[in-house]
Amino acid sequence: MIRAFLSLLLTCCLAAPILAAPTQLPLDQGQRQWLEDHGQLRVGAVLQAPYVQLDRRLQQLSGANVEIINWLAKAMGVELVWRTYDSPEELERALRAGQIDLAPGLGQTPAGLRHWLFSDPYLRVSQLLVGERDGGAAVDLEQLDAASLVAVREGSAVADYLRSTYTNLNLKPMANERQALQALLAEQVRYAVLDEAQLSRLSREQEFAGLAVVGDIGFPQLLRIASRRDWPELASIIDVALRSLPAKDLDQLHERWLQPKYPRLGESAGFWQNLSLLLGVLLLSAAIIITWLRRQQRRLERQLLDARHALQLRDAAEEALRLTQFSIDHSTLGILWVNWDSHVRYANRAAEQMLGYRPGSLADRPLADFQPELDMDRWLNLWRRARNSDEGPLSFETRCLRPDGSWLPADVSLSFLRFGSSEYLVVFLSDATERRRAREALEESEARLKGIASNVPGLVFRLERPQAGAVTDFAFIGEGSEGLVGYSASELLDTGRGIRGLVHPDDRDSYWESQTRALAADRDWHWQGRILTRGGQLRWADIKAGARVFDDGRAVWDGVVWDITDNKQIELELAESRAQLRDLSAHLESVREEEKARIAREVHDELGQVLTVLKLETSMCELAFAGLDSGLRERLESMKRLIAQLFQLVRDVATALRPPILDAGISSAIEWQARRFEARTQIPCLVEVPEQLPQLSDAKAVGLFRVLQEALTNVMRHAEAHTVAVRLSEEEDTLCLRISDDGRGFDTTARHGSSFGLVGMRERVLMLGGNLQIDSQPGEGTTLCVCVALDKEKVA
Fold first, then answer.
1. How many CB atoms lie within 10 A of CB 785?
2. CA 532, CA 111: separation in Å to the nearest integer?
3. Considering 19, 578, 616, 749, which has the largest number of Cβ atoms within 10 A of its Cβ?
4. Secondary structure of 263-317 in the HEC alphabet?
5. Does residue 189 carry a pLDDT above 60?
6. Which pTM was predicted?
């Protein structure tokens, strides 16, 4: 037993992790971002002690590779999902199926490089030559002859290495390392070759205590961490983490799991058998003595406990009696013990104070002294009811007469009590003065509330939810409902119609939606819509209710339904008037653009023709008469310059009225206007327009162009910008124009004096059926976005 305990203690000590806590890894920003995006990694491991071993009772993994990977996970801040396999072939199939992300303890092979990215080696596992423990010098493999058989695991890379390197060796293949050591003990072979990890695992067994390491074959196994080839970031992070792992921690890990250990002297079977025999004799003698002493102790303790228990019972009974008497005497509830003849046998201090009697003066008094209406017949009736009642105490409200003639409102509860051979009625009295006052105040408050609600020019209501998750319903509707909708409050409540039954059928969906949102979120409720009166008259109503939520989950909504029919009618008329004004403005704008186009054509065609003829006549005069008079030549040259300036002025006027570039499409017009803006202001203007754009109506094209002109004018006058960006894009069925600058910006919520630039742009866009958004803050530039719908027949 002791040997097993010490062995378990040794195992627990060895199982304690030795790797120090990980430090912050020196990763770059990309590697840290990759770890944040991949918070969980799947680890595949082949079950092979002492690298990875599973405690099936605790369902816990341990081993050298498990400690290394757990340390890396803490250093990288990721969560691990372990998956174990019985062979390297199963591990490779899992990798190809995409079930694992990394695997520890693999050796780098040419075939493995097609599937894995390997880290730098973290452990070096030597291949050792093991023989009998004879104290000799190290064995040189090159000096061994064919008579010295060497056991090695069949089909391993070590066997291939020995065959190719030491041709003089006589190798004997074995199925596993244990069989190789057993063959060595049975003197079937002279030496056995196995790695120090397996030797560490097997050397702890008593069977192999006489074996020792006699040489190293010079073919170490380098353990690496393999990761998926499609995740090079993970491979680089693992290399950084392994380089940050202190060398002394790796040495301790190697010594703990891979260093061969041999049984110590104290672990021999004979030593522990003799020690156990001696301890058994001593324990048997001690047990006999302890048994006799315990029998004597139990007898004495039993007698002592019986006496102590009797004393405790008596003390507890006396304490309970004193506590009961004290509780009754000092109770705030009046208590009377009354005999069948209605005389008081006991009264506590609270009852004496309530009824106004001196201490001790209530005893032997009949109840009729402070309850004049209670004659003997009524008392006996109460006695019988309380004695035969199966529903508990009788309770009622009454009033008691005090010696000074005043009355005490009281709540009375009667309970029948049998004590020994005596029977009593226990009367419990409580002062109901404050409760009556509160009830009267509540009744007065409710009456005042109903009076106020009935005189409010609207319908006052209350919605209540008794508890969380319960159905919400109307608890109160004011009498103002009859003046508003023709229904009395009782009709709306008793029939279950409530306010929801008054809503117009076309508005019920919006009513239910707003009410449901308010009730679900326990917030205030607001709704506007149409309701129908008893006579079928349509009226507009505005409902506002404030929410109150209590700690027990109960919630109430107090609100008022206002009649806003007159205001709504004015609002609708105003909206219609604004719509008419906007239509009129759109018509005037269209007429003005058409007039501008007509004037532009006339100016361009008529004045252009006249100027062309004038220029031709001047040239003819110059050819005919310029040679006769030098002064005349100068005059003709001056006239030609004036005609050229007039030509440019005519073009500028025609372009200002309606740029001809609009006929080539809105994209070309935007490019043209941006180049003109750059030439005038020397501010770079970046333009992005689609190569192919659906044709727009002339009104929308002109409207977008005028908005662009106004926006660029504002940039030139106010923005102090360094660059401007203009972008035209097609988004679903809309065409969006965005003008952005990096100027000083402005506060969009502030009013800007008598400037109507933004107002004009907004009205122009509304006339086109689109919308305009302005995003700007002081010091952060301005972005103006205009979106108009494309013509459906042209989009199709």
1. 15
2. 84
3. 19
4. CCHHHCHHHHHHHHHHHHHHHHHHHHHHHHHHHHHHHHHHHHHHHHHHHHHHHHH
5. yes
6. 0.36
What distance in Å separates the CA atoms of residue 474 and residue 461, rounded to the nearest whole number? 7
Planar angle of CA 730, 732, 735, nearest 5 degrees: 35
Cis omega (within 30 of 0) for bond into 660: no
pLDDT at 12: 37
- Asked if 656 and 650 count as a contact pair (C-beta separation under 8 A), the reply is no
Sequence-distant (6+) residues with CB within 8 A of 596 are: 657, 658
Average pLDDT value for residue range 770-782: 87
- With contact defined as beta carbons under 8 Å apart, do 672 and 661 qualify? yes
Dihedral sign of CA atoms 624, 629, 630, 635 in order: negative
Task: Report percent pLDDT > 90 for the chain.
Answer: 5
- Under a CB-based contact definition with an 8 Å cutoff, are residues 77 and 35 in contact? yes
Structure-block tokens of residue 575: 């909206």
Give the H/E segment covering residue 452. helix 433-455
559, containing H or E segment: strand 555-563
d(Cα 582, Cα 590) in Å, to the nearest integer?
12
Residue 119 CB neighbours (<10 A): 26
The DSSP letter of residue 343 is B
Q: What are phi and psi of 557, to 5 degrees?
A: -125, 110
Q: pLDDT tens digits for 124-173?
A: 888 888 888 765 667 888 888 877 888 998 878 888 888 888 888 888 89
**Could you write out the DSSP letters of every residue in 474-522?**
EEEE-TTHHHHHS--HHHHHHTS-TTGGGB-GGGHHHHHHHHHHHHHHT
373, two tokens? 């209406």
Token output for 282: 């001593």
Least Cα distance to 223 among 51, 61, 85 occurs for 51
Beta carbons of 140 and 217 less than 8 angstroms apart: no
Write out 100-125 in H/E/C secondary structure: CCEEEEECCCCCHHHCEEECCCCEEE
Closest C-alpha among 753, 760, 754, 685 to residue 715: 685
C-beta separation of 150 from 192 below 8 A: yes
Q: Which amino acid is at 423?
A: E
Residues 6+ apart with CB under 8 A from 689: 667, 670, 671, 727, 728
Other CB atoms within 10 Å distance of the CB of residue 440: 10
Residue pair 751/678 in contact (Cβ under 8 Å)? The answer is no
The 8 Å CB, 24+ separation contacts for 322-330 are none
Instruction: Identify the DSSP state of 368.
Output: G
State the pLDDT at residue 523: 87
- Tens-place pLDDT, residues 629-642: 777 777 777 777 78
- Helix, strand, coil: what percent of the chain each, to 5? 50, 25, 30
CA nearest neighbour of 45 among 104, 94, 1, 90: 104
Helix-then-strand count for the chain, H and E: 23, 28
Q: Would you say 382 and 353 are in contact if contact means Cβ atoms under 8 Å apart?
A: no
Before 26, cis peptide (omega within 30)?
no
